[in-house]
Amino acid sequence: MAPHAQPMAPATRPPDPPDPREPSQGQDDDTDANSDTDPDQPTALPAPTPILPRDLVRLFQCQICSLPLREPVCLPCGKSMCRRCLPQTHLRTNISYPDLPGRLEGFRCPFPDCGKEHAVEDCAVDVILNKVSQQLKEEIDLRRSLAATAGVFTRIYMQDPWAIAGVASLRDEDGSSQVFDGGKIVATYTLAEDGDLKYQADISYQGARSLSDGEDDIINDEHIAAKAQEMTRAEMDCQVCYALFCDPFTTACGHTFCRSCLHRVLDHSRYCPICRRQLAINPLLNHTSCPSNQTLNQIINSFWSDDAKARKEAVAAESASQLEDLNFPLFVCTLAFPRMPTFLHVFEPRYRLLIRRALEGDRTFGMVLPRLSMVHGQTEFLELGTMLRIVNVQYYPDGRSLIETIGVSRFRVLRHGYLDGYIVGKVERVDDVSLEEEESMEAAEAVPQTTSERPIIDDGNQAEESSEPHPEHPPEHPPAPITSADIETMSTQSLMEFTTSFVTRMRAQGVPWLTERLLSIYGEHPNDAAIFPWWFASMLPVKDLEKYRLLGTSSVRERLKICCSWIIEWEASRWMELMSSRPGLSATAQSSS
């Protein structure tokens, strides 16, 4: 934002030609509000946090077209612009996950400090900003009409940016001026509506004539600012905590919440609390990857700076108190994954107490994997774990219980202590990157492959399609696994197809880890790439420490690549078993190599 000078008419400016609407007397240079207002007159509305008329109008200007915001959208980078100013869209390439119609088209962000590719689906109209912008326009239209009737107007001069910066102007002529109905706020807004006020431009004013008592309530800039504050404040409460927005985050559906409030909501549901639209990926607390709504932040800090400061201090104090408390119970037993069931046979007194307290509370606790070997200074468990929610309990007469749980989310243990024999800790949630970053990751890594270049993905159906042996792939040879290098350059959808085809092939072969009993517990393999790695890790007989790697990942693509690496190792081990069990085949392979 350009630096502001105190708005006033330059002293060296020659007099302007008379304007038909200009009064013959009563003009004076005014730098802020009307100076002739009676200070003892009662004010109908509370005074807002002091804000210059130019700054108020700038809050509601589009940074692209400089016109007042119309149908504003909040981009994933946190910046706002008119919907009509969105750049021309194009078909996105090298992106296969998530394969949704609304994400096929995108555009390059027009803001130089971003420049990322945004999906059209992520740019819905900002519900709150759209409403307050429309309310301000209606109020300005009313005040402009009243000012025209009362004959009140303001002259606006465009300020030279060189002069504002303290550099002598390069132009010989003086800046132009225009006259508009109303006080400074109304006149400035009208100038922006006419397209003559750039977002970064600054202006100065020459004030209107003195106002009568009746006109003061409807024309005075302080009253207009207070009215704008009052209208806007009614929309600035979070619909979760019902308090003033603190760190407002706008979802892809256009609804805004406090970041911390939305985070708590998504612990229990993947749907927007207002419109119930599914939210693909939880927002991070990391402001770099998921920025806040910058325009709403500016409005809040400009209109209610004291309230905003108090809210931030309250939220910070609450967070600090939570950091001091070791209040999350930890069950050190096994490896658990989000969205997957975990069954526990609880018999130790300390864990019976943990489960009882969890049932009396929100029914959640943490599951962490014990450390097999410890050195001095290490904890007895690994730092990453999964929050579990109890869904069913079966008690036995001797006090034991069988607990059925479902994985909710991942966490990292920051500190821990002991309470009545079991471990309690302070944890922080572990989330995936934003959906936009997920797509960018795939676009940067994936290489478009032709049919001839694509790694062979055998789904087990070749033997059914033809009973004749293929000369290049004899039936006694298992399908050749793809390499680790292939995994890095495959699309996310190809990674998913490779893993699911492996499951289909293994099930056809009747492997013991895909029995009907296990499938009745974990279900058939999910088609959602976000869930599949958790299911696959729950089923595949791989060491827990290897599966533990999934808990530290931050993207669906990263987890699928780990699953594919397991398949490569599995296929390689089976190939070696086949080679060792058939000496003649081994000799043939060695001679051919």
Question: Could you name the key traits of this structure?
Answer:
single chain, 593 residues, alpha+beta, Herpes Virus-1, Archaeosine Trna-guanine Transglycosylase, Chain: A, domain 4, 4 domains, five-stranded mixed β-barrel, 35% helix, elongated, disordered N terminus, disordered C terminus
Explained architecture:
Helices cover 35% and strands 16% of the residues. The chain is of the alpha+beta class and 593 residues long. The protein has four domains: 1-8 and 22-79 and 124-235, no CATH class; 237-322, 2-Layer Sandwich (Herpes Virus-1); 328-430, LON domain-like (Archaeosine Trna-guanine Transglycosylase, Chain: A, domain 4, Roll), CATH 2.30.130; 435-592, no CATH class. The strands form five sheets. It has a five-stranded mixed β-barrel. A hairpin with a 5-residue loop joins β14 and β15 (401-419). α2 runs antiparallel to α6 (221-233) and α8 (294-303) crosses α9. The longest helix is centred in the last third of the chain and has 26 residues, at 556-581. The chain is elongated, with a radius of gyration of 33 Å.
